[in-house]
Design a protein that fits this description.
By secondary structure, this protein is of the alpha/beta class. It has ten helices and six strands, in the order E-H-E-H-E-H-E-H-E-H-E-H-H-H-H-H. Strands 2-1-3-4-5-6 form a six-stranded parallel sheet, sandwiched between helices. Helix 1 links the parallel strand 1 (2-6) and strand 2. The longest helix is centred in the C-terminal third of the chain and has 15 residues, at 179-193. The radius of gyration is 17 Å and the shape is globular.
Length: 214
C-alpha cells in the first residue's frame, strides 16, 4: 500500500508517517498544503491519500476540496480525510459526492496504528469508513416519534456498525455472531426504518447516515 500524507502541521505529519512506517506502510511522499498534495498524487499515483481537512492558506476546507478533486480526477486513488474536531457536515459533504474509497477519521484516532492501517486498507478496498464519533452524535439526536425507539439493543449496535461502513461479515466478526444473524438484523432494521435495502455497501452507509441526519 503506497500512501501520500498531507498535513500542514509538521509534527502531526511526521507522527502519522512514523506510525505508518512502523506498520510497514510505504509512505511515498509528504505535503504541507493542498497544492503540494495534488502534485504528489499526480507524481506518485498512490493507493491512498491521507489528507487534513484544514490546510493553508485559509485553514478552512482546502484539504476537503483537494480530496474531492482527487476522487473526481483519479478514481483509483482512495482518500482518508482527517479532522482535529468533529465536523459531521464536512464528512457528509465528501461522502455524499464520493461514498466509495473514502474515509473520515478524527485525528486522535490516527496515532493508533491498528485503527489507521485498518481504515487505509478498507478505503483502498473500496469501502466507506466513518468515524464512530460521528455515528454516536447522530444517534444521540432526539426527535418526536423516533423510529430508532423501535429497535432492539442489538439492532442499535448493528445499525451503528453499518453507519461506520462495516460489511455484514465484519459486523459478525465484531459481535461474534453468525453472518446470517447479522443479515437478518440488517433486513429487520431497514424495514423498521424504511431506508434503502440495497446490498451495495456504499448505498447502505449513505442510506443510514441520511436517515440519522433527519
Amino acid at each position: 500500500m503506497r500512501v501520500v500524507v498531507a498535513d500542514d502541521a509538521m509534527l502531526t505529519r511526521e507522527g502519522i508517517v512514523h506510525v505508518l512506517d512502523e506498520a510497514g506502510v510505504d509512505v511515498v511522499a509528504q505535503a504541507a498544503d493542498a497544492d503540494g498534495l495534488l502534485r504528489e498524487v499526480t507524481r506518485w499515483t498512490p493507493d491512498v491519500a491521507v489528507v487534513d481537512i484544514k490546510m493553508p492558506p485559509t485553514h478552512t476546507d482546502e484539504g476537503l476540496v483537494a480530496a474531492q478533486r482527487i476522487r473526481d480526477e483519479r478514481p483509483d486513488v482512495a482518500v482518508l480525510v482527517l479532522s482535529q474536531y468533529l465536523e459531521p457536515s464536512y464528512a457528509m459533504r465528501l461522502l455524499d459526492r464520493h461514498p466509495e474509497k473514502v474515509g473520515y477519521l478524527l485525528k486522535e484516532r490516527v496515532f493508533a496504528a491498528a485503527v489507521l492501517v485498518d481504515a487505509l486498507r478498507r478505503v483502498c478496498d473500496g469501502e466507506t469508513v466513518v468515524d464512530p464519533t460521528i455515528v454516536s452524535r447522530l444517534f444521540r439526536r432526539r426527535r418526536d416519534d423516533d423510529p430508532l425507539a423501535t429497535l432492539s439493543h442489538r439492532e442499535h449496535e448493528v445499525l451503528g456498525l453499518v453507519a461506520e461502513g462495516l460489511s455484514n461479515r465484519a459486523i459478525a466478526d465484531r459481535l461474534h455472531v453468525a453472518g446470517r444473524t447479522v443479515e437478518a438484523h440488517v433486513t429487520q432494521i431497514f424495514l423498521k426504518l424504511g431506508v434503502d435495502t440495497s446490498p451495495d455497501s456504499h448505498r447502505r452507509v449513505l442510506a443510514v447516515l441520511s436517515f440519522l441526519r433527519r
